[in-house]
């Protein structure tokens, strides 16, 4: 076949269109709604195939053999990347820590639960310098055990085994992290356009850490936590302590856990700043092909610690950097400390008048002793009164410190995995922790049909039944597997009082459903979902379709004692486009807020579309609003929303900043009203394509079928016991 070359360069490839990163639709129209986040981890990207089940593969894993090999790896130093002190423990802990440490509580995104550190931007963050080498050191184990262990599990296990190999009795470990196969495009890491830009732009007032932009937790673009040199690189341990406290709180840690993690994390290993960071090669994502995915090449051509640069801070924190002991406290509280600079020019602290025997040996030459150091964040543990009191408690009771750290490490590395039922393996702790959002197993052997009949005979409307079930389930976040209908926490504080849950309507519905649940021996959680199903079946019947909405019993009811109410506050919906409501005006548009919630709930574009259209005609809008209710038969599960949305006999006129009048073209009369969350389904070209499918004359039955399927997906999103 004759292939014509382009006239300019003789190249037969369409430049940028199908190979390099060319101008995308979002480049041309940056204000367009980007639906890619709903389909970012499409099954077509998974080389293991659509039928691959990681939990089934895990059954083939010889955990004991893997752990034995992992222990051996820790001291098997390689010439191409020698181990500090002959032990890779510090490097593997940093890999696991920086993988898990990107988690933030506000939206549950980040964390180590998907092996995302393999991809940009995390694989090339300045704070992750040389962690590409740690992943390559793990490759022989990944190669050996294959698909029976994910990268996500292997990376976190490496950090846990590293601690065990250096003397810590760990709290446990759970396998079960499914890998992704491309970058997470839904995670907002900040608006900065340069790495390590000053943190001022993330705060209303950088002196008030609680004014940091949500959902961010790290203080600067490209950092996992805080700047080790101080706020914007200026040492001041008391100011740094304030940033540490806020940042760790946004990563789900309290003061005691924060102090334990700081001390325990810096009890082993060392920081690297023995050179000029500006001379390092490009990061992995920008490095040449010959680097084969490795970055930050050292121009000296050696990987010895004496010439390595990562954070820029240089030195070990303790006398014995390969032993988990009380050495961090011994040095921090045993000496006075003064400011100095590393060879790389980083601000750090060094002890005054340290004894030679308290100095750690050189990481490559044990015949030489080196000066230890502390970062500004370490000094915060001594100078901040609250942190100091906690550290003094640890010093007085070393066993308490070790247990507190082990638990905090377990939380750090498992926080985004969801409830304990998702953990796999022989080392899963028997103790259930409150941050795992425990829910007791519910009853399954009760008269479902009889309960449905009683619900149907009640005075509750379709809208009340469906809205309550939706509100109970919509809190689910696929990011960290929290929320959802299981547990019926909608009846507990703080959820029962959330404005988005319409407390008065919620109380009315629960006053009817709770006695019925008790009468039939069902959980309230099951009864709420079943009630929503009853409402949908009524609405489908009114449309002429006899549908039984699938239902899986077995949800349990959580109690106040099982609920960390403070941590559930972040799950409060401040907007829900599905119910055409938002609490206030925000910087982002209503349609962007809708998209974000749909992504967290794990919905696809078509599922988001059909659910919103169905919920509108069912009359489930918050407060009974009529916006987007494009039907004359409210409570009937029809495709009227899409029919009227695409009706060219109607015109659309702005009525306010976020609302619109929909008028008859001939008479000019207002027939309906709408919000941006409604009209985006006719405006956005992709969403309109979905809407047109459901507006067709032959689509009424398909609409009901698809709505029911999407509804069941939402109701069962947190039913990990069904997997």
Properties at a glance:
723 residues, mainly alpha, two-stranded antiparallel sheet, 36% helix, elongated, disordered N terminus
What's the short version?
The chain is mainly alpha-helical and 723 residues long. It has helices spanning 25-28, 54-58, 63-74, 89-100, 131-145, 151-165, 237-249, 255-265, 327-334, 376-383, 385-396, 398-414, 448-456, 462-473, 503-520, 524-542, 565-568, 590-600, 605-617, 640-645, 676-683, 685-695, 700-715, and strands at residues 270-271, 315-316, 337-341, 347-351, 575-576, 581-582, 650-654, 659-664, 670-675.
In words, what does this structure look like?
By secondary structure, this protein is mainly alpha-helical. Helix content is 36%, strand content 5%. It has helices at residues 25-28, 54-58, 63-74, 89-100, 131-145, 151-165, 237-249, 255-265, 327-334, 376-383, 385-396, 398-414, 448-456, 462-473, 503-520, 524-542, 565-568, 590-600, 605-617, 640-645, 676-683, 685-695, 700-715; strands spanning 270-271, 315-316, 337-341, 347-351, 575-576, 581-582, 650-654, 659-664, 670-675. The strands form four sheets. The chain has a three-stranded antiparallel β-sheet. Strands 1-2 form a two-stranded antiparallel ribbon. The protein has a two-stranded antiparallel ribbon with strand order 3-4. A hairpin with a 5-residue loop joins strand 8 and strand 9 (670-675). The longest helix has 19 residues, at 524-542. The radius of gyration is 28 Å and the shape is elongated. Residues 1-5 have low confidence and may be disordered.
